[in-house]
Amino acid sequence: MKKSIHYIYFALLLLVGWACTEEFRLTAEAPSVEDANFNFQPTAQSANIIQFTGVGDFFMMKWDLGNGATAEGRTVTGLYPLAGTYTVTLTVFNAGGSESFSREIVIDETDPTLLDRPVFNLLTGGLDAAEGKTWVIDSTRVGHFGVGPNPSVNGDFPEFYQAQPNEKVGSGMYNTRYTFKLENFQFIWNTGGLVYLNAAQGSQFPGAFDPGVGDLSAPFVSPGGLTWNIVEEEGRNPVLSVSSPGFIGYFAGGRTYQIVRLEENEMFLRFVDQSNESLAWYVRLIPAGLQVVPDPEPEPEPENPDVAFTLNDLVGPGKRTWMLRPGAGSFGVGPARGSEAFFPNGTDISGDRPCLWNDKFTFGRDGVFTYNAQGDIFAEDYMGLGAQGCVSEELLSGTAAAAWGSGTHAFTFTPGTATEFPKLTVRGTGAFIALPKAFNGGEYAAAPPRADESVTYDVIGYDPETRALSLSIDISTDGSLFWNFVLIPTSEEATGPQEPAPGAFTLQDLIGSGTQSWSLEPAVGAFGVGPAPGSDSFFPNGLNISGDRPCLWNDAFIFQADGTYRYNANGDIYAEDYMGIFGGGCQPESNLAGTRGPLGLQAPISTPLPQPLEIPQRKSRCAGQELLSPFRKPLMEGNTVKVLRVKMRR
């Protein structure tokens, strides 16, 4: 049977052709019943989902949707899964008073699919959860409460401020329980006797006081009988609302919350500050009773970051051009180096911001850094262009933000050390990599950028195989907020006469004054095997095994100017099964006699050496070159290639 909707007027009949009311009436004349009239119609999604629109437009319009839910605004949506008759009432307010108008709607058929919705099930526990689902503020997690810009600029997260674990103890925020039931859309608000408020809302709560953790707290007990409602619109985050006087987490004047994220064990909400609409607040909740594992303490700075990235890697044979790597994880902000947990949290936004992903950053051996915007930029409010998103670079011309356009600057590169990451510094008015507004210790709130400013980025990772370069910049004053970027090189490299690359390993380094003997360095990382050059993660994974295998560490590898190479086992060898010598470990070299294993100390073997021998490496570590395997052992098993690492000294 075709569904239909019927209605009965509870007020005076309206005159045909009644004129529209003025917007936001603030006169002393109270509104009339006609002013509170409204229209309604089923949505395309379902005949049981009804959209209501007030005929007039007032500064405050409150709805009782007749299904246990309430809402505010001129246009609202009501959900009616069950067949029945519902009385919907709109109350409008102006400076002269208020007036209400009611209509009755009839839902002909039950639509159980409207109750079995993912967002409802996650919020309430679903049809089988008779007692509903109870949520609490996730007090042990960084960023469980915070504030950011409205509208959002870099994503929906508390960009301006994130509360630390348990920072608001004593405010009442952590005592409150929020229970959502599917039955009659009940919202059970157990405040524990105390609520937490924005300072601008204190006048609404008698007895409000300073709890000593910022803003205000106030004694308050829920009157009961509250409800909840969720409105879902295609292309937008769901909106959760609760009836007055209820609120969730922190009262900033409103009771409507954008659901940024709703999962089985997490709900992340965003709501606009009603006393300052340029701000948006955030609260993060978890189910009550959930075994909470606090965020681990930030790891200390690594004693040895061990990022093998050099100036040669940056500039190539003369100059090298870099761009953001397409895909997720290449551009974001979070609480640690390499993190993008605040934004975009694993989402690939390269398609949303193509004008960022086509930017080119070129570094030359002459110390010149060039930025090429490729004709378009990603405009944000701080630039003062009156535009948002991808726009023509020409909009920068003649503005205070002009220095953030394409241009030439200077750069310096600082190699890494045992305790410091390599650093890349760009210098000049408006110089930046990937994001114009980010600088060390902060972000620009408005143009222009400071004159002749330098911005330094930590090189936190480099993959020599993919040439993915990971950069990080701390924009906080306490190491709590980092922008992170991953760049890859383009094919645009200048070639031509170049000076010898600093740190190249030459024949002279190998043979010294004519003959030079090498042996394994007695240290961590001198001998091992792993999935990449320089890695010993398969074995021994960071251990110093020189004391366990002294018969390897006393071996001598001798190179001479005439091309002769000699090996001297110094009387003992490290035996393994592949040699056909049983027992393993250090044994006399004489045990090799009569076997088909390694030949031990031999007469000179002529081996032509390349001229020159170029092995890229920092000169200070020439003793750590990956030159030779000191044993003859297969380097491939199945389809797995093993990369040997040996580190020798003279």
Automatic annotation (TrEMBL):
PROSITE patterns: PKD. Residues 53-114 form the PKD domain. SUPFAM superfamilies: PKD domain (SSF49299). SMART domains: PKD (SM00089). InterPro entries: Ig-like_fold, PKD/Chitinase_dom, PKD_dom, PKD_dom_sf. Coiled coil: none annotated. It holds the Pfam family PKD. This is Pkd domain containing protein.
